[in-house]
Amino acid sequence: MTRTVRRLAVLASLGVLVGAFALACGGEGADSEAGVQLAEPANRAALAELRGDIIADGSSTVYPITAAAAEEFRLYARRVRASVGIAGTGGGFKKFCASATDISNASRPISTSEVEACKAKNIEFIELPVAYDGLAVVVSPRNTFVECLTTAELKKMWQPEAQGEITNWKQIRDSFPDRPLKLFGPGTDSGTFDFFTLAINGKEKASRGDFQASEDDNTLVQGVTGDEAALGYFSYAYYIQNPGKLKLVGVDRGDGACRVPTVANIADQTYQPLSRPLFVYVRKDAAARPEVKEFVIFMLSKSFTPAIQTGEVGYVPLSDLLYEAATKRVTAGTAGTLWPKGPETGATLDRYLQ
After folding, report:
1. Which pLDDT tens digit goes with each residue over 186-195?
2. CA distances to 72, 121, 189, 265 from 118, in Å
3. pTM here?
4. Which CATH architecture best describes the domain 134-267?
5. How far apart are CA 196 and CA 120, in angstroms?
6. DSSP H or E stretch at residue 346
7. Rounded to 5 degrees, what angle do the CA atoms 45, 294, 287 make?
8. Residue 140, SS3?
9. Which of 265, 218, 261 is nearest to 238 (CA)?
């Protein structure tokens, strides 16, 4: 495993750090070992002349990708400092639309209300897909009675009407034991919360409120691990980073097939409705600054993206064509979203190729 992949893994396992994490590192260049080839940037000399600060914030899911890219970029652009914070997707967009950040990490597309908030502040943005992800539904390894749940059963657990009413596993299925149902999930500023509620309950943010919520995915991991009657959900990447601590629960979308997330079925979109693309959003005026523009191009290039392709950290890379299409959006300064109605389930990224 290369340093970059190790860094991705460490950052994913760290989860949510309070405040911005200032990235700084040394070294002579991007190292590579068997299985991962990181290309040297063709404009290495030009990168060495860059200077300035880059501020990113937003999704805890996208954080490890952006933070690792910032570390690798600093190997070539030593006078550029990037800070990456975790305010959740919604919290990140609030800062972004107030011009407090240059880049917003997002585990869902920007919503129509967030588009309007940016428009009110004359903020134009460039939307860039960076990877695929899946949501993992998990229980403790000590849980011996749950192997698979239907999307209807998940809805029965998580819909707003369940609050104070669905409190026992036996209410979900007669064959389940008479045990209290304890639920863990992301906070309401999380794009993962938004996507899960849309995919399972049919409407963003439509959820029972009596569950243990946290923006820190590691808090959720610990909560589920410590109670055999608990169930939670979060990014597949955090499941990968906690080997032996969690048990995946399969999801049956109604066709009788029980699927757990894997790199393969997230990539081919067969893990539905809980597969999704991940994004970064760049303020158009910030992208006019050389250090920001070159960082984002680097993040989409073969000087970095092969680190995602190992599958070691649970993120799934885009195709070369999609990374090329995203790079063209940066170089052309193509502003706006290709998700005019906001987040969707079961959607592909083919729209970026048209």
Report:
1. 999 899 999 9
2. 30, 5, 17, 35
3. 0.85
4. 3-Layer(aba) Sandwich (3.40)
5. 28
6. none
7. 145
8. coil
9. 218
